[in-house]
Amino acid sequence: MRFLLRAVLFAAVTLSSAAGTRAAMAQGTPLHAVSAMTCSAGQVAKAPVLRWQGDAALKWATWNVVLGPRRVSARIVVVDVDPARVALSLDLARNGSVLMPWTLDAAADSTLLAMNAGQFTDVGPWGWVVHRGREWQRPGIGPLSGAFMVDSAGRVRIVASRALDSVKAVGRVHEALQSFPLLLERGRASRVLCDPTATLDRNHRDIRLALGLRDDGHVLVALSRYDGAGRFAERLPIGPTTMEMAEVMRQLGAVDALMLDGGLSAQLLFRDGAVTHRWDGLRSVPLALVGHRIP
């Protein structure tokens, strides 16, 4: 029975992906093939030509891709944030002093950017949490993990878990979250992705959400949505594999990149002038990353 169900799902995904590819081609939408990143891939990648919208603080685009040898159709929502113009911080939903589940509905009207942050357990965020200079939770133990952090001057870094002790020793960490897996280190596949002994399913497909950092200090956010069967099907848990998402971030220009919780948790909101764009998740989360325009 399980084999039959898998066969039916595979057939449905293959047919709808092919239909989505044909529809995009008929509309003149350029499609870009993305393969799994290899550990021998260099730092330089041919960047896609995107039609950016927005302003110098936050600009955004969508990128239509086909993934892997099965040419699974996906749409990547890409956001480019300048941390010199947008202050990034963690956000918690509260009812008085009680922590509440967070969704995009909790984002304030002044919020320019909002998304779920990190990975989670049944009792709250997993791993390191620093908010407003205070360490709320110590780093988790996970060789696949990395950390996204903002220092007191607003500068952003993404580092591997093995570097967290030295980062903490220096201090000046204002905001931080820990997640996994670490996708890129200095433009190449991270050590953990290239470690054959790592417990990591490199072939599983799902909705993905990732944070990246360019050489110029800009922050990249990338959210995948299945694009094979119309708007209704975009929440299906079909998207890049981990290695394909690493390649997506590399081609977008990230030199360091970290995966956030995807699947049902993945959610993203940003504002372009008076227009709010949002992609809701199907599950609330305990922690978010938000951005506010610096006056």
Walk me through this protein's architecture:
The chain is of the alpha+beta class and 295 residues long. Helix content is 16%, strand content 37%. It has helices at residues 2-26, 164-170, 191-194, 242-251; strands at residues 32-34, 53-54, 58-67, 72-81, 86-91, 93-95, 98-100, 113-116, 120-121, 124-125, 129-131, 134-137, 146-151, 156-160, 173-179, 182-185, 188-189, 209-213, 219-226, 256-259, 268-272, 275-279, 288-293. Strands 1, 2, 3, 4, 16, 17, 18, 19 and 20 form a 9-stranded mixed beta sheet that branches. Strand 9 (120-121) and strand 10 (124-125) form a beta hairpin. The N and C termini lie far apart (59 Å).
- N-to-C series of helices and strands: HEEEEEEEEEEEEEEHEEEHEEHEEEE
Radius of gyration, whole Å: 19 Å
Sequence stretches where pLDDT stays below 50 over 5 or more residues: 1-28
Number of helical segments? 4
- What is the approximate shape? globular
Question: In terms of structural class, how would the helical and strand content be classed?
Answer: alpha+beta
* Proportion of strand residues: 35-45%
Number of strands: 23
Specify the helix fraction band.
Answer: 10-25%
Report the mean per-residue pLDDT as an integer.
88
Distance between the termini: 59 Å
Main beta sheet strand tally, sense and closure = 9 strands, mixed
